[in-house]
Amino acid sequence: MAEITKQEIANSVPQKGFFGHPKGLFTLFFTEFWERFSYYGMRAILLYYMYDTVMNGGLGIDETTALSIMSIYGSLVYMSGIIGGWLADRVLGTSRAVFFGGVLIMFGHIVLAIPGSVPLFFASMVLIVLGTGLLKPNVSSIVGEIYSPTDERRDAGFSIYYMGINLGGFLSPLIVGTLGDYNYHLGFGVAAVGMFFGLVVFALTRKNNLALAGTIVANPLAPEEKKKVYTRIGGGIIVVAALAVIGIVTGILTFDRFILLVGILGIVIPAIYFIMMYHSPKTNRDERSRILAYIPLFIASVMFWAIQEQGSTILASYAKERTQLEFAGITLTPAWFQSLNPLFIIILAPVFAWFWVKLGDRQPSIPKKFSLGLLFAGLSFLVILLPAYFGGSDSLVNPLWLVLSYLIVVIGELCLSPVGLSATTKLAPAAFSAQTMSLWFLTNAAAQAINAQVVKLYSPESEMAYFGIIGVISIALGVILFAISPIIQRAMKGIK
Predict the structure, then answer these.
(1) How confident is the model over 166-223, as pLDDT tens digits?
(2) Which residues pair with 474 in a beta bridge?
(3) Which stretches within 280-365 are classed as H helix?
(4) Among candidates 118, 28, 134, 122, which has minimal Cα distance to 78?
(5) DSSP 8-class letter at 452
(6) Which residues contact 389 (CB under 8 A, 6 or more apart)?
(7) pLDDT single digits (tens) 47-77
(8) Quick check: 456 and 64 in contact, CB under 8 A?
């Protein structure tokens, strides 16, 4: 991005046209709306599809194994953002990465919609993992590009964008969940249609609305580098594939060992990224300081997502197995509960966006907002242990307890997630803009890799200890982060 500055890219985008924000926010809002409709709709029924009996149209996988698969799948989805970020920064540019990613996701959901076997299921997972890695971090990076670095609308814009994500996430479990209750593959087919609509919106509006945003390859491969890099990538793919086949055939690569491997990668890969960016000659002194400031925010995010992402694993199982589904004369579908998180965000995101703007310079610092996110995440788990405390682990739970838990964690999410997206674009070294956004999504990957081990500890008998211990750890980390927030703020070198 040496020839064209961030300011020049932002200036090329029409700055009025979507609720007082740049016109490009319309394109990104609706692209991500349909992508999230597709992804969260599929995810709303995926756990039930895995552990339901073959007679009922499921795969007949053991429930504990299915919980771990969900976590590992979620981890790999966000881990693949490394590949997407690298390709965007060095080869494709973020705009083309978003489009190609959407195509892969659509085909992944089409494969899921075909009645088949476990091998077909895993093939669809590979397509969706790679596609989301290309699309998810790069569409968020483009949101950062349509605003100048000093634009005060930036945080509010990310909140509006975040509302688009959650509007898709709210509708999809209701629609896909209802259809999936009748036929799983029909539900997956609707998810594929959602991604198709997202591709159409992006293709038809990106030229006029985004202008230069997303078109610049930030750190392109030099001609002499290309052959060497592509050879290494091809060789690496062959080696990994060969090792995987050998491991499966010999029995060395078991599912438990694969989970452990992903868990290790979830910690090691971010560490490598931090070291690489910090020591890169393309990173200046202030950028190195900001990288150090980003580390405690990264750790806080891992803790937060470790709780929030259990909405599609432990709380999804809790909704089906432990919750009264006959309520107020209505028969509830368990997948509907996964609409609660995005519903509350849709309601509260405008309030938070208004509130931060209203506070102006008086609003809490970025680290303090993160600490509030951890506090509310912990409280959401302490709330959900109360039904077992009052009624025991054998009785069905009033669904309003789940509603309250989702509401509390959403308050924490609005303190942390849109702020984290915005902070990542501001703290990112110029040469690693898309890759730093990939690093932000690695917080979710690391959290779900850890969850793949943690969810094995859950049972109705261990319910109180499970929710209580995790909740207390989150609150304690929030207190520590709040205490050291002035130190982190100074290391951010003027970024607010």
Answers:
(1) 888 899 999 988 888 888 888 888 888 888 888 888 888 887 777 777 677 777 777 7
(2) none
(3) 285-308, 314-321, 340-359
(4) 134
(5) H
(6) 464
(7) 888 888 777 778 888 888 888 888 888 888 8
(8) yes
